[in-house]
Specification:
The chain is α+β, with helices and mostly antiparallel strands. The chain has six helices and twelve strands. About 40% of the residues are buried.
């Protein structure tokens, strides 16, 4: 059963058997490149009443049955729960959470709390603890294009849920889940040009609270070409331009208030286009 909504945007390479979406627009130029007419995307937009009914009747696991290749019923979105990422709009109202995530409010509430930073490489094996205020004032700056991922510290995922509970209780996650899973939050703040190189894990959602985040995604069977200690910015500059169209990833820009659903084991790399605040809900 397809999730109600209308297609608007996400970009991907052309796939055999894929049909043109009912509505589409070209992707935005990125890093000096240009949008390719053969690239396309899926973005779902939900109306309030329609979304309320859908949230009561549907779970993401049920969406796995939609639009099998060749069925002639791809609809607006294709396949989602287990085999296709999708951008969702208008799922929840997180305006209160957004207000609490301003720089001033976060520093006032958590400036003296110690946070754990990870290296911005594929394996994130190095951890560094320091006061949140020190991270914001000294490390939250644009990414140096010449720096390696294992030399770049990134605040995401290693959250103390007891100390940050006063913030997280105001967050409304997407209203869909997967059977047999329990959601877990990962909260992050990072500078422009930062991000995490290609990696994979279980399924989940990623919502941008402030800023914009660029995503590059490959299905599990298609391992991307990348170096685990090179930043996404370096990959975009050095590797991406040489990729033939057939080897390019699905890609999209998630803006404030939008949510990306990523399926299990999909390769993905992220790039913060601005200083960004974001939160992921892992369905592990």
């Amino acid at each position: 059963m397809p999730l109600p909504g209308r297609a608007q945007e996400v970009t991907s390479g052309v796939r055999p058997g894929c049909r043109p979406l009912p509505r589409r627009r070209s992707c935005r130029p990125m890093a000096g490149g240009r949008a390719r007419g053969s690239r396309r995307a899926v973005r779902l937009s939900e109306g309030g009443g329609l979304m309320a009914r859908a949230s009561r009747l549907l779970a993401l696991w049920a969406l796995a049955a939609v639009a099998l290749p060749g069925s002639g019923e791809e609809g607006d979105g294709g396949w989602y729960a287990f085999v296709r990422p999708v951008i969702l709009q208008g799922l929840t109202d997180n305006s209160r959470f957004r207000a609490l995530c301003s720089r001033e409010k976060l520093l006032a509430s958590f400036g003296d709390r110690v946070v754990r930073l990870s290296t911005a490489n594929t394996y994130s094996y190095q951890k560094v603890d320091l006061p949140f205020q020190e991270y914001v004032e000294q490390l939250l700056h644009p990414q140096d294009p010449t720096s390696l991922g294992n030399d770049t510290l990134y605040f995401f995922g290693d959250n103390n849920f007891t100390e940050w509970a006063s913030l997280f209780r105001h967050y409304s996650p997407p209203p869909f889940g997967l059977l047999g899973t329990a959601p877990a939050y990962s909260f992050g703040i990072a500078g422009a040009g930062s991000g995490v190189p290609f990696h994979w894990h279980g399924p989940g959602y990623s919502e941008v609270i402030y800023g914009r985040k660029r995503w590059f995604l490959y299905p599990p069977e298609k391992t991307p070409e990348f170096h685990p200690n090179k930043t996404t910015l370096a990959w975009l500059r050095d590797t991406y331009p040489a990729l033939p169209p057939s080897a390019r990833p699905l890609e999209c820009t998630i803006q404030a208030g939008e949510v990306l659903y990523f399926p299990d084991r999909w390769w993905h790399a992220t790039l913060n286009l601005d200083t960004s605040v974001f939160i992921s809900t892992f369905l592990g």
